[in-house]
Amino acid sequence: MLPLTEQQLRSSFVNASQRERKELTLPDLAATRWDDIDFLGWRDRKNPNLGYVVAEVDGELVGVLLRKAEGGVRSRPQCSWCEDVHLPNEVVFFIAKRAGAAGRNGNTLGTLVCSGFECSTNVRKRPALAYVGFDVEAARLQRIEALREHVTTFIRRVCAD
Q1: Please, which residues bridge with residue 69 across strands?
Q2: Measured on CA atoms in the order 7, 8, 14, 16, is the torsion positive or negative?
Q3: How far apart are CA 57 and CA 141, in angstroms?
Q4: Are 94 and 64 in contact (CB under 8 A)?
Q5: Which residues pair with 13 in a beta bridge?
Q6: Is 50 left (phi over 0), alpha (psi -120 to 50) or beta?
Q7: What does the alpha-carbon distance between residue 17 and residue 21 come to, in Å, rounded to a whole number?
Q8: Where is each Elongation factor G-binding protein C-terminal treble-clef zinc-finger domain found (predicted)?
Q9: Could you please report the per-residue DSSP string of the chain?
Q10: How far apart are CA 64 and CA 126, in angstroms?
Q11: Can you give the pLDDT at residue 57?
Q12: Cα–Cα distances in angstroms (integers) from residue 125 to residues 112, 139, 160, in the given order
């Protein structure tokens, strides 16, 4: 992912009001390892029930504001984005208001995602050797591509009318 500025981030959100964009707490952009991420995702330090995801979709920067759903899950879920079955982190259910008129009418989408948006790190781990001759690097690259597709699909669904 290419490095982003504060202005690019704030203006990218498709389902946030002007006030929400202005008040969002940004991550430490200087400390972000841009080459190692497929999307920028973070939790709000001031309000941990809020999360933010920014990715390039169809050549444009698109941001989505997420809210952590109330309650918890009864069993350990799998992240819908990285699909890691050996997660070292918690997975939570986030809800995103749809963009435009659909969102103003109360329409939302939900997804299970790593609580701290660690998906880019998870898919870059070398998978276990499944069988003799298993191409570990090809499997890792396929997981990276699948993550990008899952994030892009979710953002497209938030933006769709």
Answers
A1: none
A2: negative
A3: 19
A4: no
A5: 63
A6: beta
A7: 6
A8: 8-158
A9: -----HHHHHHHBSS--HHHHHHPPP--GGG--GGG-SSEEEE-SS-TTEEEEEEEETTEEEEEEEEEPSS--SS-PPPTTT--TT-SS-EEEEEEEPSHHHHHTT-EEEEEEETT--HHHHHHSPPP--STT--HHHHHHHHHHHHHHHHHHHHHHHH--
A10: 29
A11: 95
A12: 20, 10, 33
> Which pTM does this prediction carry?
0.90
Tokens 């991420």 sit at which residue? Answer: 37
Give me the residue label for tokens 């938030």: 158
Which residue type sits at 89?
A: N
